[in-house]
Write a structure and sequence with these properties.
There is one protein chain. By secondary structure, the chain is of the alpha/beta class. It has a single domain, classed as Divalent-metal-dependent TIM barrel enzymes (TIM Barrel). Helices cover about 40% and strands about 15% of the residues. It contains twelve helices and twelve strands. Bound molecules: D-mannose (DNO). The site of D-mannose has 9 residues, from β4.
Length: about 350
């Protein structure tokens, strides 16, 4: 495995050289975050990001994300041009040495929480999702933690309306249409596409979601069989859904050579509905067996990229929720330990 760390480029509050000091760190996971969705990234900006990473001894082999325009998901007539741009972005990323691209196909919101600063007993705070609080949200006057700056009310209502007669199959067919056009480019330039699961893994506000469980992934892989059509297995996203056996999924997709990127984080289920809190990475702190997850990956020949996912804000850090340095670095230390043990045991 290659241990990586998400870094938001020059605007990230964490100096990139700090990342290099995390034990066993191989590279950054980043993107051209300032380019509007659907547009082509300049090779210069990719090269600049790469040279900043390389300058401190880190690689830049993983992009998260090249975002997919809503018009592609909705199958609008503009999609062919947008898919062409997407293919061009894949080629440009490959030209600077990128090997893996994470993306998602969730309509409108790529993650959803009801709280960004949930207060934990130990004084830390983290992201959380409460079933009860979710019921109180008015879909016709949506104000969502973390999303208010991304859409105006009119845009949001327009998008919700555009999807209102849209089924899971409609969205799936548009995903297949997209994959059938981008995967041949990946095959040509040697890039692994890794779809990120729905977060949380169920429908919200009547929007269809199609990457929520094992059957969804199987259907997607059967439709476009190239191994470059793979998954970002985010344990916290799939694992928020109690219907998902994350350990089994990690083992299965490692074995099939479809698990290209592993996002490791733990969640704690907090009631008998769908509520959960993001916790520290250790098994003991949450509801997922992190040691078993890593073991399943190693036993089944996983050979991809790993990154710690959302950390809590700890030690007085006030970082972008989920993306501080301290707790993710602690996560790295723990992840290194789990992999070292599992690899020794399975030699
Ligand atoms: C949230 C992230 C997501 C993820 C995208 C990938 O913290 O896990 O925003 O990067 O869904 O496309």
């Amino acid at each position: 495995m290659k241990l990586t760390f998400r870094w938001y480029g020059e605007s990230d509050c964490i100096p990139v050289q700090y990342l290099r000091q995390i034990p066993n760190m191989s590279g950054v996971v980043t993107a051209c975050y300032d380019v509007p969705v659907g547009e082509v990234w300049s090779v210069e900006s990719l090269k600049k990001l790469k040279s900043i990473a390389n300058g401190v001894g880190l690689e830049m082999e993983v992009i998260e994300s090249i975002p997919v325009s809503e018009d592609i998901k909705l199958g609008k007539p503009t999609r062919d041009k947008l898919i062409e741009n997407y293919c061009e972005n894949i080629r440009r990323c490959a030209s600077v040495g990128v090997k893996c691209v994470c993306y998602n196909f969730m309509p409108v919101f790529d993650w959803l929480r009801t709280e960004m600063y949930h207060q934990n007993e130990d004084g830390s705070n983290s992201l959380a999702y409460s079933w009860a609080d979710f019921q109180k949200i008015d879909p016709h006057n949506l104000h969502l933690p973390g999303w208010d700056e991304s859409y105006s009310q009119d845009e949001l209502q327009g998008l919700l309306e555009a999807y209102s007669h849209f089924s899971h199959d409609d969205l799936f067919n548009n995903l297949v249409y997209f994959l059938e056009r981008i995967i041949p480019v990946c095959d040509e330039v040697g890039v692994k596409m890794a779809i990120h699961p729905d977060d949380p893994p169920w429908d919200i506000f009547g929007l269809p979601r199609i990457v929520s469980n094992e059957a969804d992934l199987d259907r997607m892989f059967a439709a476009v069989p190239s191994k470059n059509n793979g998954v970002t297995l985010c344990t916290g996203s799939f694992g928020a859904g109690r219907h998902n056996d994350v350990v089994h999924m990690v083992g299965k997709y490692s074995k099939e050579g479809r698990l290209h990127f592993l996002h490791l984080r733990n969640v704690k289920w907090t009631d008998d509905k769908d509520s959960f809190v993001e916790v520290g990475h250790c098994t003991k702190d949450g509801s997922l067996d992190m040691a078993a997850v890593v073991d399943a990956a190693v036993v089944n020949g996983f050979d991809g990229y790993v990154r710690p996912d959302h950390g809590r804000n700890i030690w007085g850090e006030d970082a972008k929720p989920g993306y501080g340095l301290f707790d993710r670095a602690l996560g790295c230390a723990y992840i290194n330990g789990l992999f070292e043990m599992a690899e020794k045991k399975n030699k």
